[in-house]
Amino acid sequence: MPHPVNKKIRNLLTEHDYSQRAIAEKLSISQGAVNQRLNSKIPFNVDDIVIIARTLKISIEDILEDVLEYSPEDHHKNMTRADFFKFRNENFQRLTEITLELKQMNRNLIDLIKSNS
After folding, report:
1. How many domains are there within the chain?
2. In the chain, is it the N or the C terminus that has fewer CB atoms within a 10 Å radius of its CB?
3. How far, in Å, CA of 26 to CA of 23, rounded?
């Protein structure tokens, strides 16, 4: 069964008419590596998700909205429950850091716009 994040990314790429080759270039990986991710052979990491969100001009939350309802039993058969939660926690921690960085960048941009007007 495909991981919900991978499935969501596949659907978003289709909706935005974005090819595997084009997203591979943005992620600096091969088209084959993108295909493996989209087919849930390997997971997208948080940095990949951030780049995809920026490329498609959508929020990170748009990509991750289904992940909280996801059961680790649905994921890759080789991944233990403990490995799944470790992976999820590490990625959510990184996602939180990135979200805070983006919020700060947004505040800085607003301040810059105000000071120039």
Report:
1. 1
2. C
3. 5
Torsion of CA 80, 10, 64, 111, to 10 degrees: 140
Question: What distance in Å separates the CA atoms of residue 92 and residue 69, rounded to the nearest whole number?
Answer: 14
Contact 75, 66 (CB under 8 A): no
The predicted-structure confidence for 77-104, as pLDDT tens digits, reads as follows 556 667 667 777 777 777 777 788 888 8
Whichever domain contains 22, its CATH number is 1.10.260.40
- What is d(CA 69, CA 86) in angstroms, rounded to the nearest whole number? 17
Residues of the chain with pLDDT under 70: 1-2, 66-81, 83-84
Q: What is the DSSP secondary structure assignment for residue 16, as one 8-state letter?
A: T
Quote the domain boundaries for residue 9. 4-116
What angle is formed at CA 24 by the lines to CA 21 and CA 26, rounded to 5 degrees?
A: 115
Q: Which residues of 53-71 are buried (b: 16+ CB within 10 A; e: fewer)?
A: bebbeeebeebbeeeeeee
